[in-house]
Amino acid sequence: MIVGASEGFKKTLDVVGVGFRASNQGQLLELSIGFSHPIYVMLPDEIKVTTETVKGQPPRIILESTDKQLIGQVAAKIRSLRKPEPYKGKGIKYTEEILRKKAGKSAGKK
Fold first, then answer.
1. 104-107: which pairs have CB atoms within 8 A and are 24 or more residues apart?
2. Structural domain tally of the chain?
3. What DSSP character marks residue 47?
């Protein structure tokens, strides 16, 4: 609790995939993650959200708050919208998360 009051907690998520985008207007997070429509997520006022897009890197969602439980819950909710799939790695993942990729159909044949 002391860390939360003095410096706060931070979670970062990467939106990995061709054509996947993330942007925000205030507390409204807009995600374009491969569905036929954009996904809108309204975040609580206790959480500060920023999105950054750097050429050559996946869009990044940065969540900051003093409440560790709330920020973890919101980050998990955003990630659950499109979890990283094991074959190509597309989806929403935590920045520090390491994904294990699976081999495709042709890997088992000899």
1. none
2. 1
3. -
| Helix or strand run (H / E) with residue 50 | strand 48-52
DSSP annotation of 72: H
- Structural domain includes residue 42: yes
Q: What is the CATH classification number for the domain harbouring 19?
A: 3.90.930.12
Q: Does the predicted model carry a pTM greater than 0.85?
A: yes
Q: Three-state SS for 64? A: strand
Q: Is residue 14 part of a domain?
A: yes
- What is the residue type of 48? K
3-class DSSP state of 19: coil
In which band, very low, low, confident or very high, does the pLDDT at 7 lie, cut at 50, 70 and 90?
Answer: confident
